[in-house]
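Final report, closing paragraph on structural work. Over the funding period we assembled a curated collection of sequence-structure pairs, and we close with a single example.
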Amino acid sequence: MEHSPAIDVLHVVEAFGGGVAAAVRDYVRDLPEARHHIVCRLRPEAEALGAQWRQDFASVTAITGGQLGAVRTVRETIRELHPAVVHSHSSYAGVWARVAGIGLDGFRSVYTPHAWAFAREDKSRLERAAFRGVERVLLHRTDVLAGCSRAELAPARAWRSDVELVHVPNIAELEADSTPTLVQQPSDPRGLLIVGSGRLTAQKDPAWFRAAVRAVRAEGHPVRALWVGGGDETMQADLESAGIEVTGWIPPAQVERHLAEADLYLHTAAWEGFPITVLEAAQLGRPIAVRSIQAFHEVSLPVVLDRPSDLAERWERIAEHATREQMVSQQDRALRENCAGVQHDRLAQAYGLEVRPWGVGGRGAPGRQSATQIVDGVTRETKGSAELAGYAGPSR
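Its predicted structure, as stored:
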């Protein structure tokens, strides 16, 4: 059987770390029919990923300059690699990639916002309007909007742009030794364990988590509370002063161990693309409650909260063993599209690749792989090609 050379895909990432890093690595491992390259800045917490992450990519280029330097680095990398696809992730990277591509042809421009910048509640109305205007203009330099949730596609649909819209769902790849566990009967006299997760920033809104925990305790219900992640020291101190333990930055395997211990995973972010920690908690069989934000509007999760006090109002029911078992069953149905097979086929569609659908020709779910550590600098190492059924060609 003849083998076609793999196409080259260049991922442009504003800050490699957290959920975006997890999403990009899932794309890479889920679509081996392409050679994946990355140009990125590195977040401090990225070091928690381990030592071998760069082996996921055929090449890694680190950005160290400012905004103009980033555009220059992306443009130079496009010229060097001649990729068939340039896939930018999040707002700044979306600007860098689409500005860097001006005057360059031969590639398909794919953009995933991973949460629109104009949804940021920590910005003024004027700033958010400016973000919206920039995104709307840059959409004309975009071939495919690859939303990580259906809700993320809604703005482009409302703008009536001719950009192709593809829902590429986020997935969760657990560590090899992570397995789902059954919902347990309460046994700790200190109460059920509520777990939150993420970088301590305005986006993840740990103050909302703290308020929800306090509301439950104020109603006389003993609960333990844990925040998995690190970041802003003032936010961490606020959580700890409310009797909430904070882990700081820890490797992915430890994150999963903490999630697996949760009696309830509470996701409190003020805005999101689609949070991978929610998917990880679901895969681990943990009951989930989420804050009502746009990312979840088209997903029928069983417990959606408008206010922190809503958790206290519903706590007696949530604390029941049977209720939490029902929550897990409903979550599984609601998140059935967030799987490797769907992501593979949708990503191939976004890239213009004609590949065998997932499950055809012996294809199955990819093996779980350990996460690894961030390595700075530039590495060039070409990997072998993968079998393709065909490539539709660039749109640009």
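The chain has a mean pLDDT of 87. The chain has two domains: 7-171+339-351, 193-335. We thank the funder for supporting this effort.
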